[in-house]
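re: that chain from earlier
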Amino acid sequence: MNLPIRSYLLMLAMSTAMAQSAIELNHFYVTVDSATYADIEKNSFLRKEFAAFEKRTTVREDRSYTGIYFYGTKTYFEFFDSAQEKRAVGETAVAFGVDAEGAMPAVDGSHRDLITRGWNGVQIPWFYRQSPVPQLARGLESWVMEYHPEFLAKWRPESGVGQGVTREEVLKRYKSVLTDTPADPYLKDVTGLTLALPADEMERMAHWTEQVKPAVTIRFIPMGQGPHGLRSVSFRLRRAPEQKVTVRFGGRSVLTLRPDMTAIWEF
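^ sequence. v structure.
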């Protein structure tokens, strides 16, 4: 079959973009009890040394929510207060992402939509979302996202930092508009998640990740007697602490930084 040269080059560019853009982790969120949330929010080590931090209210066309956020190089994570947001403790979401336009894969049995975000009273395109249908379970969500090419041109454009659709460029923009961020934060990126789920939810989440094939470690353990959802997060650090650092939040949450430039946050 002979294709016009322009069509051939377009197909080649799209094919190359998809080949170069693996499915990675974009971010995760977890809902914690109010005491744990308050401890995390006010902790000076997290704010001044661990990572760029902000508390924000996001206004979307479909919903609004308030949480606290920690930004790495290519990945980030957020916490919700169960009482403030009327969510169950342990409610968890895992968002995967791609770093090129048109690189979001087609997954059987999923739905694609566009998520917007408010800025200066206007809803602007934020990212495309592809989610399993039906959603995995009450209190457990997952999706693949691809940032909209117009997002950084329209959201806080005065920053001038960050461009394009990659996770790293978007996080550069997020961090550039914050004040009082650490000069040399410990956090580089999230490297793995451990989820405790009932057998049926574990099966559905495992099937979804098998379809998506993310390049991040997702580990499953039986729910047992502990809390539902996220149990631990593994991190890669940008620099090593001189000795092990342990920080506790609420009744059971513990963050441990190690001299080998890794860290784990348990819930």
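The chain has a mean pLDDT of 92.
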